[in-house]
Automatic annotation (TrEMBL):
Main localization of the protein described in the UniProt heading: cytoplasm
Keyword Coiled coil: no
Chain intervals with Basic and acidic residues compositional bias: 136-147
Domain of life: Bacteria
PROSITE patterns: HTH_MERR_1 (PS00552), HTH_MERR_2 (PS50937)
Domain HTH merR-type: start-end pairs: 1-69
Protein source organism: Cupriavidus cauae
Signal peptide limits: none
Gene3D superfamilies xrefs: 1.10.1660.10
Subcellular location: Cytoplasm
GO CC annotation, single: cytoplasm
Region (Disordered): 120-164
Gene: cueR
Name by which UniProt lists this protein: Cu(I)-responsive transcriptional regulator
Length: 164
């Protein structure tokens, strides 16, 4: 089948198929007399494998390693499991970072009254020197009393209103 048919059958776009070939993730297929790529069932199987791994968040390098393990019938399943558990640990780290970002943004939004006044602690925080925290920075997380802590508030009321 041609690249369009392979794309439709695998769920991988023709552009991505060409990309995977260019980086060596997928072997370059044989070509027809007219120079068109020709894909067989094995190529489709590989494309589906790559698509599933990408959908699960594996990087291209990780997928390359998974493909090598998949094609090596003498491999130990422990190698596949170890690679997968490393990926799970990375996902858990990213999830924690995203949760911290969510919590920071929620606290900032709660600190803003959202009225017609132009002053807003959200924008003030973004413009604050050194306020480019990493994803895991909890500087603006919740305090023990459940109120947002912007590090500048002197009392509970200042934490919830946009400052004029």
């Amino acid at each position: 089948m041609n690249i369009g048919e392979a794309a439709a059958a695998s769920g991988v776009s023709a552009k991505m198929i060409r990309h995977y070939e260019s980086i060596g993730l997928l072997p370059e297929p044989p070509r027809s007399e007219g120079g068109y790529r020709r894909y067989d069932e094995r190529a489709l199987h590989t494309l589906r494998f790559v698509r599933r791994a990408r959908n699960l968040g594996f990087s291209l390098d990780e997928i390359r390693n998974l493909l090598l393990l998949w094609q090596d019938r003498g491999r130990a399943s422990a190698d596949v499991k170890a690679l997968t558990l490393r990926h799970v640990a990375e996902l858990e780290t990213r999830i924690a970072e995203l949760a911290a970002m969510r919590d920071t943004l929620r606290a900032l939004a709660e600190a803003c009254s959202g009225d017609e006044r132009p002053d807003c602690p959200i924008l003030a925080d973004f413009a604050e020197p050194g306020s480019a925290p990493s994803a895991g920075d909890r500087r603006h997380g919740s305090s023990r009393d459940g109120n947002a802590d912007d590090g500048n508030a002197s009392d509970g009321n200042a934490r919830h209103a946009c400052h004029s």
